[in-house]
Structures are given as structure tokens and as C-alpha cells.
Design brief:
Blueprint: H1 7-26, H2 40-59, H3 70-89, H4 98-113, H5 127-149, H6 151-156, H7 166-205, H8 211-240, H9 243-246
């Protein structure tokens, strides 16, 4: 049993250990401890997803053109913000991709902020979670490039503008493209991990007043890192689109 198992993780292990272990064995990924297959970051990641689903499930039937509530106003603010950023970075051709940008922004933001709640921790403290988010962005913008340009035309831009330098440019461009995975993963993980460590350190020493400024800084960093991740994803999508689409 993990020494610092969160109470949320303990609940998942208490009620879902059997089915989870069976599923992992079926996938040929046997857990180290069959009685406790859930780890903190997985449990927190699932909890964040469930909270988001629940919030939108409660919001959906309350949407109204005549009498919008506070939840609808907040959702419209987020949509307007993400849509405005998309227009600034990509242009109007980026509008079809606003749902993905909004989804990844909301998920990362909630995952970052949940660590500010006592007895819980941010799943983005784990590199496995941030790598998953980076893989989602990586697969998405490459699929956009293949879908909008075609596989051969999309691969062609990895060759560079000068054909006789293509044998040099191709490996450089491929490595640069793959490096985005590392950049997105490490940036989000390192910032959130450092912020959580600072808060834990000061709470353990002075549990009342002193940690408050660091808590406010942590919340600011949570918003900032979610925004940067979304913004970089927009930039990569804009680069993957055909030239006339990205700069229209």
C-alpha cells in the first residue's frame, strides 16, 4: 500500500481494485500491487474528469437564451476567451478546433487547481499525466495537418524549402516536432510539481497564514500553465494547417 495514499485513491482501491486489476491483466499490464492498483495521479485524473462531466451535465439542461445563469455566463466567458485566442493565433479557419482547445484548457486548469484543495493533489504533478496531455495535443495537430493537407503534402513540409537540403532538414524537422512532446510535458509537470512542493513545505512549517501568498501564486501558475499549454497547441495547429488557412 502506498505510504501517502490519498483518501480518493483509497476509495478507488476499496471499491474498484478487483475490476481494475482484471482489466490490467487482460491488457497484459499486471499491477505491482493487485490489492491497490490505483495510484494517486490516476485517481485524481479520473476525479477531475468526473467533476468536469458532472458540471457540464448539470449545466446543459439549465442553458437559456432569456435567463442565463451564473454557470452559463462562466461557460460563455471561457468559450469567448478560447475562441478569441484561436482567432488571434490561427484566424477564422481555426474555429472548428475551438472545442478541442477548450477541452484541453478546462481539463488542465481543473487538474492544476484541484491541488489547492486540502487532502488532494494535482494530477499534473505526475509526468505521466502531462505526457498524456502532450500526446493528445501532438496527435491532434498532426492529424489536422494530414486531414487538411493530405499525408504527402503534410510530410513535404518536413523537407524544408530547398530540395537539395531536404536530407538534412528532414531529420531536424522530425526531431524538432518530437521535441514538442518533451517541451509540453516537462513545462507543465515541472511548474506544477515545484508549486506543490513549495505549498507542502510551508504548510508543514506554518499551517495558517504564511502559505496563503504561495497558494495565490500556485493558483496564478495553474491558470498560466493551462493557458500556455492551450496557446502552444493553437500555434502547432496553425503551423499544421495549409499556409493559406493558417494566415487567412
Amino acid at each position: 500500500m502506498p505510504e501517502h495514499e490519498l483518501w480518493v485513491t483509497a476509495l478507488f482501491n476499496a471499491f474498484l481494485a478487483g475490476p481494475t486489476t482484471a482489466a490490467l491483466r487482460w491488457l497484459h499490464v499486471p499491477p505491482e500491487n493487485p490489492a491497490h492498483p490505483w495510484t494517486n495521479f490516476v485517481a485524481m485524473e479520473v476525479l477531475v474528469a468526473l467533476i468536469i462531466i458532472l458540471l457540464f451535465a448539470l449545466l446543459r439542461p439549465r442553458l437559456s437564451m432569456d435567463r442565463p445563469g451564473k454557470g452559463q455566463h462562466l461557460a460563455e466567458m471561457v468559450y469567448g476567451f478560447v475562441g478569441g485566442q484561436t482567432d488571434s493565433v490561427i484566424g477564422h479557419r481555426g474555429r472548428p478546433y475551438v472545442p478541442f482547445f477548450g477541452a484541453i484548457f478546462v481539463f488542465i486548469l481543473c487538474a492544476n487547481l484541484i491541488g489547492a484543495i486540502p487532502t488532494l493533489e494535482s494530477p499534473t504533478m505526475s509526468p505521466a499525466v502531462t505526457l498524456g496531455c502532450a500526446l493528445a495535443a501532438f496527435c491532434f495537430y498532426n492529424s489536422v495537418g494530414v486531414r487538411t493537407q493530405g499525408p504527402f503534402r503534410y510530410l513535404k513540409h518536413f523537407l524544408g524549402p530547398v530540395w537539395w537540403l531536404s536530407f538534412i532538414m528532414f531529420p531536424i524537422e522530425v526531431i524538432s516536432n518530437l521535441a514538442r512532446l518533451l517541451s509540453l510535458t516537462v513545462r507543465l509537470f515541472a511548474n506544477m510539481f515545484a508549486g506543490e512542493l513549495v505549498i507542502f513545505a510551508f504548510i508543514s512549517m506554518v499551517p495558517l497564514v504564511l502559505p496563503l501568498p504561495f497558494m495565490a501564486l500556485h493558483i496564478f501558475v495553474a491558470f498560466l500553465q493551462a493557458y500556455i499549454f492551450m496557446l502552444l497547441t493553437m500555434v502547432y495547429v496553425g503551423e499544421a494547417l495549409p499556409h493559406e488557412a493558417a494566415h487567412s
